[in-house]
Write a sequence for this structure.
């Protein structure tokens, strides 16, 4: 732009002011106590959390923040399905949170958005699940602190499977068959979420492929994945899949309200489901798609990041260290008192009685035996590209090869930007 | 909605409304036309500059840069963003989606609101009541309506309203929004918007209907025109021409701006995305690619300019009376 510097500055500050006014208005309208941030005694920190579904979680996060002496920590509890968009949009403004939860993704590191937390994590590195450290490490530096590990797998109603004479599915074909047999007038056989996107990665892994290989090259475009996509299309059009449910896969209500016999969900929902269904509940991993494949479980979860472009980087780091490194009591409470999550700290996981027996222990076993952790090089744009594959060839009936080719193009563009 | 009669009355009043002539002295400023002009238009112009022209200029600038996760980029890339957005097909697909949507929604809203206006206009009792009832949905937010449509009227499970009704006739549950084949989602989107906006346009038509001189109908009756279709076709419809043109234009503009219901009803799809939703996903969604998003916005702006000029030529909207 051939404009003099001062006018560029003017435009920027004008827009910033405008954004600030808008965001400020929005916050004020929510009635949150953001007025204290930045001024007065002590430092004000703002943290962003997506809305967890389990009752008591929001209060817990606010309680931990209140117990902290070093700064005044305000929590923004972001409801709605698109936490990423809201987070990314706010990170660009002056109202950006000082710390936020998200998943490890390398573009945040490359763009200098998240601060290096090596100095606070390194002393307790050995007490973390090694995979959680690896998934947050770039060039030897650790960029986030894992709070929760959330394995995602299937829950099923034992009584319904027995009645239909169906065993626990061992392959995708058996799952499709079981779904058909379990479908009756009122109950659908299977629920994978309304857009099916939760099972994209499990499908890739269970077909014996991976998202990227260790050299950050495409590894999902295989014959096995194509076969899996074709099978998913069969399932989608079979009429035995529950579609358009009021709540999505992460909410246990589809299976607990009796809309479906099998639901893809996460470990977090286990206490709620046990309360609703008692012992009539079992779990199994995403079954293998091809003979060469292996069952898989997505070990998702959430991590705390510090906004490196914020004004209070050091204070935010201190808070992260205090809560997510030092306060083991809170970490345990956070992982086990609301939903069930696997604590990333091995010392806490080892003493977690609630995860030692029954269905929870089975969930932990799936996590250990079949779990795949986040790959930091697999970024939001690539996730989006694979979601488009599912939309195009599973929900819409397009050609899987063509959809994967389009996906390759998008992923390669992204890879080139990130790794050159 | 102003009709030809009111326009003619308003015109001579224009210059006569400010009898104060410019003069010297301390109060000259208040009397000065130039000062008054800026006093009244200034605030609006400042708003226009800050919220419209600067952002447009900024996004033109952004469209030539690699601007990911930043709005103050440094890397100049020339026309790369334009090439990217035209090549990947999503943007052009969005234009097709918009065309389909406009082809559905513009005629149906026009017909439904005109129909409602005709019905309400013929009422002898409770006219004000029905006018308000039909107008009320206009006050509802698009997001709220989308959520109601998605979660209770058109959800895919057996207790959704639409599926319950179909169930009485033994029809299988339909996944209205999840399954694009057959494209039932258009039904959901069009009905939501129809419900939300027809009341407003009904009011416009109602005002226009009440402005048609009664003498025309009387004269027609004397000449032997039958009540009903004949008078409607040869008197009512031609008399509504100005309002109809305006309504169609407003509906097209509203269709261009369609975002809320598409965004809320069709999350994570590759279909059913009008241009604004597509650009939202490019620029503000997960990718945060402001460069490509701005390139698309610039293209869309150009397109809207061209279409509007073209429309003006065809429909003659905004042309003075004398040129007719």
């Amino acid at each position: 732009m051939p404009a003099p510097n001062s006018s560029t500055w003017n435009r920027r500050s004008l827009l910033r002011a405008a954004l600030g006014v808008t965001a400020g208005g929005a916050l004020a309208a929510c009635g949150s106590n953001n007025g204290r941030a930045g001024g007065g005694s002590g430092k004000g920190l703002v943290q962003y959390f997506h809305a967890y579904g389990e009752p008591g979680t929001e209060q817990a996060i606010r309680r931990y923040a209140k117990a902290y002496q070093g700064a005044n920590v305000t929590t923004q509890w972001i409801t709605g399905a698109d936490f990423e968009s809201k987070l990314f949009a706010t990170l660009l403004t002056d109202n950006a949170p000082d710390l936020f939860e998200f998943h490890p993704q390398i573009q945040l590191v490359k763009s200098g958005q998240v601060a290096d937390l090596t100095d606070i994590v390194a002393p307790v590195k050995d007490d973390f699940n090694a995979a959680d450290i690896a998934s947050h490490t770039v060039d030897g530096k650790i960029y986030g602190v894992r709070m929760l590990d959330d394995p995602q797998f299937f829950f099923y109603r034992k009584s319904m499977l027995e009645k239909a004479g169906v065993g626990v599915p061992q392959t995708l074909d058996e799952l499709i068959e079981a779904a058909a047999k379990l479908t009756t007038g009122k109950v659908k056989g299977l629920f994978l979420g309304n857009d099916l996107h939760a099972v994209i990665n499990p499908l890739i892994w269970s077909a014996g492929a991976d998202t990227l290989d260790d050299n950050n090259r495409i590894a999902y475009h295989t014959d096995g994945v194509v076969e899996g996509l074709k099978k998913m299309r069969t399932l989608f059009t079979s009429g035995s899949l529950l579609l358009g449910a009021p709540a999505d896969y992460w909410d246990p209500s589809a299976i607990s309200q009796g809309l479906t016999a099998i639901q893809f969900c996460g470990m977090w929902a286990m206490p709620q489901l046990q309360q609703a269904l008692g012992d009539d509940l079992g779990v199994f991993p995403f079954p293998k798609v091809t003979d060469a494949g292996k069952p898989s479980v997505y070990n998702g979860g959430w991590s705390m990041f510090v906004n490196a472009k914020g004004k209070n980087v050091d204070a935010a780091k201190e808070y992260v260290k205090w809560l997510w490194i030092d306060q083991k009591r809170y970490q345990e409470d956070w992982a086990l008192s609301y939903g069930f999550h696997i604590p990333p700290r091995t010392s806490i996981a080892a003493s977690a009685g609630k995860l030692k027996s029954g269905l929870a222990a089975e969930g932990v076993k799936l996590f250990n035996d079949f779990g795949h952790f986040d790959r930091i090089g697999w970024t939001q744009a690539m996730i989006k590209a694979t979601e488009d594959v599912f939309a195009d060839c599973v929900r819409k009936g397009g050609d899987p090869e063509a959809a994967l080719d389009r996906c390759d193009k998008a992923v390669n563009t992204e890879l080139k930007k990130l790794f050159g | 909605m102003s009709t030809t009669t009111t326009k003619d009355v308003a015109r001579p009043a224009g210059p006569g409304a400010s009898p104060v002539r410019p003069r010297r002295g301390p109060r000259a400023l208040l009397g000065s036309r130039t000062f008054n002009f800026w006093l009244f238009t200034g605030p609006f112009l400042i708003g226009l500059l800050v919220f419209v022209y600067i952002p447009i200029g900024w996004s033109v600038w952004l469209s030539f840069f690699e601007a990911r996760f930043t709005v103050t980029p440094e890397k100049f890339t020339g026309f790369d963003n334009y090439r990217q957005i035209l090549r990947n097909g999503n943007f052009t697909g969005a234009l097709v989606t918009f065309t389909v949507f406009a082809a559905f929604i513009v005629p149906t809203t026009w017909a439904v609101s005109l129909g409602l206006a005709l019905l309400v206009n013929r009422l002898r009792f409770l006219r004000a009541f029905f006018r308000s009832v039909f107008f009320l949905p206009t006050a509802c937010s698009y997001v709220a309506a989308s959520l109601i449509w998605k979660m209770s009227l058109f959800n895919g499970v057996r207790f959704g309203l639409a599926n319950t009704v179909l169930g009485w006739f033994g029809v299988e549950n339909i996944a209205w929004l999840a399954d694009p084949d057959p494209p039932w989602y258009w039904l959901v989107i069009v009905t939501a918007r129809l419900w939300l906006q027809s009341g407003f346009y009904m009011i416009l038509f109602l005002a226009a209907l009440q402005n048609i001189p009664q003498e025309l109908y009387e004269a027609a009756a004397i000449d032997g025109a039958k009540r009903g279709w004949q008078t409607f076709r040869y008197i009512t419809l031609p008399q509504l021409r100005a309002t109809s043109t305006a309504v169609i234009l407003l509906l097209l503009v509203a269709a261009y701006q369609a975002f809320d219901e598409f965004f809320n009803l069709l999350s994570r799809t590759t279909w059913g995305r009008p241009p604004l939703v597509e650009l939202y996903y490019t620029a503000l969604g997960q990718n945060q690619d402001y460069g490509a998003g701005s390139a698309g916005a610039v293209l869309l702006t150009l397109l809207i300019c061209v279409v509007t000029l073209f429309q003006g030529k065809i429909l003659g909207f905004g042309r003075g009376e004398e040129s007719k």
Q: What stands out?
A: Residues 193 and 249 of chain A are 4 Å apart (CA to CA). The domain at 35-150+300-372 of chain A is CATH 3.40.190.10 (D-Maltodextrin-Binding Protein; domain 2). Chain A touches chain B at residues 1, 11-12, 14-15, 18, 81-82, 84-85, 88-89, 91-92, 107, 111, 113, 186, 194-195, 197, 236, 239, 242-246, 259, 380-381, 383-384, 387-388, 391-392, 395-397, 409-410, 417 (CB under 8 Å). Chain A has a mean pLDDT of 88.
